[in-house]
Amino acid sequence: MKKIIVLLSALSCFVFSLVASAVNVNTATAEDIAKDLKGVGQAKAGAIVLYREKNGAFKSLKDLTKVKGIGAATVDKNRENIQLEVK
């Protein structure tokens, strides 16, 4: 029984390490965006920050598709990891 508990504990730690952390695209740096969103490299993350600085906070996930290089597919695969809170 003790071995099963240790195994389950180790497995849950591994699973949690695979889950990308959520990123607030209205406050995060380009480095954090690139690190936390799948399919978004440094150039696209920089474009997100630049768009945000010129146009203000993103109000919806659909607003992200206005950024050059960010399409609906990118938003869909990161939907669970994107936060839009404005502080």
How would you sum up this structure, described in words?
The chain has one domain: Photosystem II 12 kDa extrinsic protein (DNA polymerase, domain 1, Orthogonal Bundle). By secondary structure, it is mainly alpha-helical. It is elongated, with a radius of gyration of 16 Å. It has 4 helices and 2 strands; from the N terminus they run αβαααβ. The protein has a two-stranded parallel ribbon with strand order 1-2. Helix 2 crosses helix 3. About 7% of the residues have low confidence.
Question: SSE layout and pairings?
Answer:
Elements: H1 2-18, E1 23-24, H2 30-36, H3 42-55, H4 72-78, E2 82-83
Parallel strand pairs: 1-2
Concise structural overview:
The protein is mainly alpha-helical.
The string of secondary-structure elements, in order, is: HEHHHE
Strand proportion, as a percent range, falls in: under 5%
Shape, per Cα inertia axes? elongated
Question: What is the second-level CATH architecture?
Answer: Orthogonal Bundle
- Termini distance? 47 Å
Fraction of helical residues: 40-55%
Rg over C-alpha atoms, rounded to the nearest angstrom: 16 Å
CATH class: Mainly Alpha
Q: Can you identify the CATH superfamily?
A: Photosystem II 12 kDa extrinsic protein
